[in-house]
Amino acid sequence: MKVLANVELCVSCGKCERICPNNGIYVIDGIPIKCMHCEKSPCLNVCPEEAIERINGKVVLNKDKCVGCGLCMTVCPIGAIRFSLDVASKCNGCYDREEELCKLVCPTNALDELEHTIDNKQQNVISKFKKIYSYI
């Protein structure tokens, strides 16, 4: 499951930013910005050094392979990749842990596995459309 941000619950406390070992999340005006581990992963596909790979369903950056070209930052659709000392920095989804650290420390549960909630809402809408179309 992906950890997604519910901006309505974020109080900009900064706990997620401080706990992240990769400096991979930051909050701007109450909006937590972190890698969404996109299915198509434009950053992974554009990296000329193959410094970005998918591990355990997460898009992970290997800083030792990064040459600092900036292509990944350019193609990231949500601006979740930053540069520090000419090396890319991004959320790795805590691919080597049971749960993402940012989710564990968030006092309002603004960072949570909302994917399940979104899927349920989509299924609800689909079932309503099916019901409507069954009358036509």
UniProtKB/TrEMBL annotation:
SUPFAM superfamilies: 4Fe-4S ferredoxins. Signal peptide: none annotated. GO terms for molecular function: 4 iron, 4 sulfur cluster binding; metal ion binding; oxidoreductase activity. Keywords: 4Fe-4S, Iron, Iron-sulfur, Metal-binding. Residues 1-30, 57-86 form the 4Fe-4S ferredoxin-type domain. It holds the Pfam family Fer4_11. The keyword Metal-binding applies. InterPro entries: 4Fe4S_Fe-S-bd, 4Fe4S_Fe_S_CS, ET_IronSulfur_Cluster-Binding. It comes from the Archaea. This is 4Fe-4S ferredoxin iron-sulfur binding domain-containing protein. It comes from Methanotorris igneus (strain DSM 5666 / JCM 11834 / Kol 5).
